[in-house]
Amino acid sequence: MTATPAIPPAASPTVRRRRIARELRQLRERAGMTLDVAARQLDMSKSNLSRIETAQIGIKPRDVRAALALYQVTGADAEALIEIARSAQQRGWWQNYSDVLPEWFEFYVGLEAEAVALRTYEAESVPGLLQTEAYAREIYRRTAGEDGVERKVAARLHRQEVLRRDDPVQLSVVLNEAVLLRPVGGNAVMAEQLIHMSRIAQLPNVTIQVLPFAAGGHPAMSTPYVILNFADAADASVVYLDNLTMGLALEDADQVLGYSLLHEELCRMALDPAASLTRLEQASRNFA
């Protein structure tokens, strides 16, 4: 039994952990072993092995080696996976903010740091990657109070580096028109935020479209979302949903396809990028 071909290591330890999880699950299934049987052979609980295979927790390289031996994977294939497991133990920058970022959101930031493309819809607020410092501070104060607010804002601004790195993420944003009209933090904060978005919208890797009220009902009325795509085909796309207290990553291919088609529909219903930029500039003047 052999593993999949050696995979170049990813930059984000979160993506590495997810990759190891998927490989170990597939290898166990190819070996014809149930979770119960494999867990007993590896001297761990069924629940722990299940959490490893769903990337909820990490796995030490020595335990990866034991699992690969059990699944009869040896040689270069085994060493490649063990090396990925070692790199998965490294710390991402976001882990320096673990005092203010919940674990479920750290997982998302780890995925976002590795993504090559992000597609998102927001109904109520500006997406974090587009927020100014003042707008982000007000959002946190309104949704989570004053505790740790400056650290949270710093983490949010750090995330925005993906837009301007050497190989920047491709970002497609659809905004409900309501986002442009709600004066979060007052007129001055909102005017600055809208001007900032107008500038960001002109980056070659960023597309911002406004979904006008005139478009009427639309298929994303029940939920904002983010779709994350990665450079390596070994890293399957993810749909991420969250609220104040939890996040949910959807990895099923049919679910990802469904949200991808949804995003395409919203892009068709929204103003085109040029008209959206004009609408952003108009909205900013309303708060001047």
From TrEMBL:
Coiled-coil features, chain-numbered ranges: none
Gene Ontology MF, one: DNA binding
The HTH cro/C1-type domain, residue ranges: 24-78
SMART domains: HTH_XRE (SM00530)
Xref: Pfam families: DUF5753, HTH_31
Protein name per Swiss-Prot or TrEMBL: Helix-turn-helix domain-containing protein
UniProt organism field: Micromonospora cremea
